[in-house]
Task: inverse folding
């Protein structure tokens, strides 16, 4: 059974979530949103950054969303297809979507099944890189049966056929706008990628990469009286603490996302009475990705590719020692408080999918880590740093710029120092680190360092497409414009076989068994070192109603319902 934790708020604050009476569209004026990680693109197919995926969700819509409880709800679809209603075939090889009639793009042209077919072809193009490729696993064909009916055929029986076009990672893009942007040409279409035409409640009027996006209400939006706001100022940049302050203390912004701020500081800000902190637990895990390839710049275009193994992180003893040396509870207490929990899994939820096989990581074991390295032949030098065969255990550790993350880095450096591992810390602007610029050497997908740290999760409650992230074909490389999801470059045919079996398994209990086995394989190998199961933490003004905090999809999933309330 799915469980979701939410911050308890007062009855008065809860009343702010009540829907307003039907009013004229745009009557509430401007909505000010702050994501301290600034958007770099408005095409989620070309970026793995949450700030890009969520900002574009104001414009681009999928066939269905996951709501705040993890339940699928129709967006552009008329209903959710199931076996019971005939939308999913009895043999589980097809899913047929009926589209809502009368929907138009913001330019006034009709939205049809041809746009859905095109969106799938766009992501699955063999010459392109698509950040959402795992959503289309096993898709054999997408076809328009008529203008309002789309059938997706899978090459195998698909017990969970909701990968394509469910959730904000796979929205529908307009064929007329993007048809000349297929494959290798996709990143070159700046105008389209910065200003997509959408069916959502808003449309882009100005885009400044890594800075600000301006949106105006979509006059053609299908729901009467919505959106309630006439325009949105979507500001990026700064840091999490200043973002929190802008809502909770100064009231300059209406909504601030991802408040990765020390809990005691956040509590002080709330006392100003101008904003409400909202939180929910989903599947977000702050984790360390462990590089298995050599990121040395001297390798040129082949750096960070599978042609060149890492000089020391291919040693399992080193990977295991890194994890054993970590006191995760200290990391939780110092940076997250009630919004964090120690985890030893990259797949922490829903509960049926959470493994207990890796719980050894919950207890720091410095002696055990040192013994592992001693037994593997890594000897301390006069400076205390271990080495073997002329190779020093010296890490370059990168993450995004954020006070909590830099604090976590400092603590980890100290812990690893106790086992003879030297660590150089590097932080990169979040807008760049999570950006979609394939020419930048500093993205988390290029991963030109030894280890890197960030949080990731998946939309919905079924982990199939998420666990597919670490299949061999998902390794980022020049061939896919560095848009794969397998940052550690982990590749094991046995893992891929489990992924294939999961894709065709119907029983929930068996799916859970397979997903846990995949999680455990990643943990045992040490490709990923999980740290903290994070709750999403954001804040909104006391005058903003309609917000439903959502960790299963975009936090902006129901922005059409957000509205202005008078000050209390």
Result:
């Amino acid at each position: 059974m799915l469980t979701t934790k939410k911050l308890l708020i007062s009855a008065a604050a809860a009343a702010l979530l009540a829907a307003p009476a039907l009013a004229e569209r745009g009557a509430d004026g401007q909505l000010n949103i702050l994501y301290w990680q600034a958007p770099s693109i408005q095409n989620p197919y070309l970026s793995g950054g949450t700030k890009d995926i969520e900002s574009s969700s104001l414009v681009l819509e999928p066939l269905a969303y996951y709501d705040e409880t993890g339940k699928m709800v129709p967006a552009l679809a008329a209903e959710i297809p199931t076996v019971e209603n005939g939308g999913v075939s009895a043999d589980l090889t097809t899913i047929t979507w009926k589209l809502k009639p009368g929907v138009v793009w913001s330019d006034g042209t009709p939205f049809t099944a041809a746009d859905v077919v095109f969106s799938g072809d766009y992501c699955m193009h063999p010459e392109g890189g698509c950040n959402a490729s795992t959503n289309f696993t096993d898709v054999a064909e997408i076809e328009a049966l008529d203008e309002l009916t789309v059938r997706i055929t899978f090459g195998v029986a698909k017990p969970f056929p909701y990968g394509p076009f469910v959730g904000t990672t796979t929205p529908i893009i307009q064929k007329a706008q993007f048809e000349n942007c297929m494959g290798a040409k996709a990143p070159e279409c700046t105008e389209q990628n910065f200003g997509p035409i959408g069916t959502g409640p808003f449309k882009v009027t100005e885009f400044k990469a890594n800075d600000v996006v301006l949106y105006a209400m979509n006059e053609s939006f299908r729901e009467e009286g919505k959106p309630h706001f006439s325009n949105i100022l979507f500001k990026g940049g700064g840091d999490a603490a200043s973002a929190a302050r802008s809502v909770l203390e100064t009231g300059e912004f209406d909504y601030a996302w991802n408040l990765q701020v020390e809990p005691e500081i956040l509590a002080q800000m709330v006392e100003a009475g101008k904003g409400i902190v909202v939180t929910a637990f989903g599947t977000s895990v702050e984790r360390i990705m462990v590089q298995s390839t050599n990121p040395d710049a001297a390798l040129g275009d082949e750096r960070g590719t599978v042609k060149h193994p890492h000089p020391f992180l291919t040693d399992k003893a080193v990977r295991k020692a890194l994890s054993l040396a970590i006191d995760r509870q200290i990391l939780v207490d110092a940076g997250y408080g009630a919004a964090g929990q120690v985890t030893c899994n990259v797949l922490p939820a829903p509960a049926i999918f959470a493994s207990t096989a890796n719980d050894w990581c919950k207890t720091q074991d410095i002696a055990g880590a040192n013994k592992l390295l001693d037994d593997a032949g890594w000897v301390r030098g006069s400076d205390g740093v271990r080495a073997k065969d002329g190779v020093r255990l010296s890490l370059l550790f990168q993450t995004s710029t954020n006070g909590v993350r830099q604090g976590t880095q400092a603590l980890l450096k100290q812990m690893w120092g106790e086992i003879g591992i030297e660590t150089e810390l590097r932080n990169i602007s979040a807008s760049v680190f999570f950006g979609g610029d394939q020419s930048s050497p500093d993205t988390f997908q290029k991963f030109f360092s030894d280890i890197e740290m960030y949080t990731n999760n998946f939309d919905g409650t079924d982990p199939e497409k998420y666990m597919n992230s670490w299949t061999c074909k998902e390794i980022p490389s020049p061939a896919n414009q560095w848009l794969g999801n397998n940052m550690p470059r982990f590749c094991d045919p046995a893992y891929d076989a489990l992924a294939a079996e999961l894709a065709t398994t119907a029983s929930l209990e068996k799916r859970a068994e397979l997903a846990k086995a995949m999680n455990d394989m990643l943990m045992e190998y040490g490709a990923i070192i999980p740290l903290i199961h994070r709750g999403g933490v954001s804040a909104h003004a006391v005058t903003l109603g309609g917000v439903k905090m959502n960790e299963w999809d975009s936090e902006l999933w129901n922005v059409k319902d957000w509205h202005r309330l008078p000050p209390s």
Observations:
- Residues 283-460+523-534 form a domain with the Dipeptide-binding Protein; domain 3 fold (CATH 3.10.105.10).
- The radius of gyration is 23 Å.
- The CA atoms of residues 92 and 395 lie 47 Å apart.
- The longest helix spans residues 508-525.
